[in-house]
């Protein structure tokens, strides 16, 4: 194949020509605050949680031990301490006993992080938070739509950045349960407001960005080491802003998302024989989460190889044949450069195991049946050796 199929990333839509009075589907239970990014939205949610417990001088926030380092950036930006919880074996879900053990008198919030389209078990987390009078945040930056049981989370975080379910070339949203909207107004009012202009410059950026998603363009970009494409890095939050986003743009993004093919269902069917060879299909967890499995479009398709060596060999072979396979986050959060200074010492064996065995496959709209056939051929040949 010429070029390379990108690992992730959908095309940027054009705004709807007519909004027709439509509103986002979550508008009834939640109030929407557009933010500069999903990370900024999460940090703002944490600030709301902290303000609701003003007597706690050193607030703590519970998050999973495997995930994006932006989780840590969002927490430390509010002067809080991240507390990591290991995962369930062969799963993206936080360990229930680990969550309960992580909660202390200084805990203000638990963050349930969706993983590549698999929402966390919000019902379980809501029960734990209710028992301990804690704030529940659903981080849905990698999932859309958010979990079906909206009323369970106090806040929901969305991201519209590159490589997210709805790509608007940046920005995010904080959905706040209307019962606590006054707290949000008081908290978010101090952040400056910035207008997202869908002007001529935006349209040029959109055209260029969409062109760069092509096979040849992506292959050329990936060969430029200074771009550091796909590298996981820890970046501190420099500032937090609110955005004024045209609703017509968001609604078109939602519309396009709903029309996107459910590529993960084809992977489920065609790659199922790998399970007899020691592979784990994490998409099976869609049916154990609180989101509707039939409505989700997975951001990437996650597989756990039998071991690290098999994973690495599979990624090398897939990429050499033009398939953008990825290790995703190559390390647990605690081992990412720059993060350790903010974390207490801890041992997270499952997060470590997942980081060494995880392989992700593209699921965007440019993935075709012949790509899936090639992936099946490569992974099956590796598993027979």
Describe this protein's structure.
It is built from twelve helices and twelve strands. It is an alpha/beta fold and 385 residues long. It has a seven-stranded mixed β-sheet with strand order 1-7-6-5-4-2-3, sandwiched between helices. It has a three-stranded antiparallel β-sheet with strand order 10-11-12. The radius of gyration is 20 Å and the shape is globular.
How many beta-strand segments?
A: 12
Category by helix and strand content: alpha/beta
Low-confidence stretches: none
Helical proportion, percent range: 25-40%
Q: Mean pLDDT, as a whole number?
A: 91
Strand order of the largest sheet: 1-7-6-5-4-2-3
Short description:
The chain has helices at 38-51, 70-76, 96-102, 122-132, 181-188, 200-211, 215-222, 247-259, 263-270, 308-320, 349-357, 369-384; strands spanning 30-35, 60-64, 81-85, 107-113, 135-139, 155-159, 172-177, 193-195, 242-244, 280-281, 300-304, 358-362. With 385 residues, the chain is α/β, with parallel strands linked by helices.
List keywords for this structure.
alpha/beta, globular, seven-stranded mixed β-sheet, 12 strands, three-stranded antiparallel β-sheet, 385 residues, 12 helices
Compile the SSE list and pairings.
Layout (H helix, E strand, L loop, with lengths): L29 E6 L2 H14 L8 E5 L5 H7 L4 E5 L10 H7 L4 E7 L8 H11 L2 E5 L15 E5 L12 E6 L3 H8 L4 E3 L4 H12 L3 H8 L19 E3 L2 H13 L3 H8 L9 E2 L18 E5 L3 H13 L28 H9 E5 L6 H16 L1
Parallel strand pairs: 2-3, 2-4, 4-5, 5-6, 8-9
Antiparallel strand pairs: 1-7, 6-7, 10-11, 11-12
Helix pairs in contact: 1-2, 1-5, 10-12
